[in-house]
Design goal:
279 residues; mainly alpha; 13 helices; 4 strands
C-alpha cells in the first residue's frame, strides 16, 4: 500500500510519540510518590518503636527503697554494679558485718562515685541506724565500721565502749549472761537489773545474739524441786505451782500444759521453756 507524503508524516509522528512514551517509562520514576508514602510509613513505625523503647528504659530505671546489706547478685546487676563490687559486698556480709551508711557501702564495694550518687538515695537502713547517722558529725564519716558482735562473746572491755555502760553495768550484764547460761534472745538484755531501756538499746546496736548457747533442758517430770527453782525465771511460788499441778495430772505431757497452771506467767513462757521440758 502506498502512502502519500502527508500520511507518511502522520505515521512518523505517531512512531515518535510511541518511542517517547516507551523511553519515559524506563527513565521517569513514576513510583516516587509510592516511595514517599513508604518512607513516611517507615518513619511512623520507627517513631513508634523509639517511643516503646523509651518507655521500657524508664521502667527499667525505676528503683524502690532497699537495704543495701541484702543486695543479691541479680539486684546488684540491675543496679549497675560489677561482679567484683557485688562479690566484695557478699564477702563482707558473710563475716556477719553490716554497712550502715552510703559511705561505708562505697568503702566496702569500691563502687564509683557516679553509681553511688545514682543508687544511694534509695538506701533504706533500720530506724536505729538512720537515727544514728542523722546525729553523726561529718568527721565521723571516716570512722571504722560498726561491727555487730556476738553478745555472748563480749567482754567487760567490749561492753564499756557502749555509751552509758560503765564497769558496774558491764559486770552486771556478764553476770546475768552467766546466770542464763548465755543470751538466747536479744530481748533478754532488757532483763538486766537497773539497765535503762535507752542504754540497752545502745547495747543492741553493737551486740546481738549470733550463736545461741546450748542449754541442757530439765525434765520437769523427773527433776527435783531445787533443780527447777534454780531456773532464773522461776521463783519459789511458781515452782510450787508447777509441782502442785504435776501432782494433779500425774505427769506433764506437753510444755503447753504449763499455761494451764493458775497464775503461770504466760509472758515468760518462751523463756521458761528454754530450760524446761517434759521428756
Amino acid at each position: 500500500m502506498l502512502f502519500n507524503a502527508r500520511q507518511r508524516s502522520g505515521i512518523l509522528f505517531l512512531i515518535l510519540i510511541i518511542v517517547a512514551l516507551q523511553l519515559s517509562y524506563f527513565f521517569v520514576d513514576f513510583s516516587s510518590e509510592e516511595n514517599q508514602i513508604a518512607l513516611k510509613r517507615e518513619l511512623y513505625w520507627q517513631q513508634k518503636a523509639d517511643s516503646i523503647k523509651n518507655i521500657k528504659e524508664v521502667k527499667k530505671t525505676v528503683i524502690y527503697s532497699f537495704n543495701p546489706n541484702y543486695i543479691t547478685d541479680f539486684k546488684g546487676y540491675q543496679l549497675g554494679m560489677s561482679v567484683e563490687e557485688i562479690d566484695r559486698l557478699l564477702a563482707f556480709r558473710a563475716q556477719g558485718k553490716f554497712v550502715n551508711s552510703a559511705h561505708e557501702f562505697q568503702l566496702v564495694t569500691k563502687v564509683h562515685d557516679t553509681l553511688l550518687h545514682k543508687i544511694s538515695p534509695y538506701f533504706k537502713f533500720p530506724d536505729w541506724v538512720s537515727k544514728r547517722n542523722n546525729t553523726q558529725t561529718t568527721s565521723n564519716k571516716t570512722a571504722a565500721f560498726v561491727e555487730i558482735q556476738d553478745i555472748n562473746k563480749a567482754t567487760e572491755a567490749d561492753l564499756i565502749k557502749v555509751h552509758g555502760i560503765g564497769e558496774v553495768l558491764a559486770k552486771r550484764i556478764i553476770q546475768y549472761r552467766n546466770k542464763l547460761g548465755g543470751f538466747t534472745l536479744n530481748q533478754q538484755i532488757y532483763e538486766v537489773w537497773n539497765l535503762e531501756k535507752q542504754t540497752a538499746d545502745k547495747v543492741l546496736e553493737q551486740f546481738v545474739v549470733k550463736e545461741k548457747p546450748f542449754i541442757k533442758k530439765i525434765n520437769v517430770n523427773t527433776a527435783s524441786f531445787k533443780e527447777v527453782l534454780a531456773i532464773v525465771y522461776i521463783d519459789y511460788d511458781l515452782c510450787k505451782k508447777i509441782f502442785d499441778y504435776k501432782r494433779e495430772i500425774a505427769e506433764y505431757q506437753s510444755v503447753e500444759e504449763f499455761k494451764k497452771i493458775d497464775g503461770f506467767p504466760v509472758d515468760k513462757f518462751d523463756r521458761i521453756i528454754l530450760y524446761l521440758d517434759v521428756k
